[in-house]
Design goal:
Elements (H helix, E strand, L loop, with lengths): L1 H16 L8 H4 L9 H7 L7 E4 L3 E4 L2
Antiparallel strand pairs: 1-2
Length: about 60
């Protein structure tokens, strides 16, 4: 999935420089798509199990992955 990676990199670069260090989302105004991915999806793709379920008082429910 090269295209989402390249788009995410350019979104980061644009928002970091022209978006006041990421405060403003300038890339969306320029028409760049936003891909919602996280490292847990990457680990799932590689077959890593979710692990135990736990609840942190401030962060809420989660798994180790």
């Amino acid at each position: 999935r090269v295209e989402p990676a390249v788009t995410s990199f350019f979104r980061f670069a644009i928002n970091s420089t022209m978006g006041l260090a990421g405060v403003l989302d300038v890339a969306s105004e320029m028409g760049m798509d936003r891909y919602k991915q996280d490292f847990g999806l990457t680990l799932g793709r590689w077959g890593v199990p979710t692990g135990p379920y736990f609840v942190l008082p401030i962060l809420g429910p989660s798994t180790i992955r």
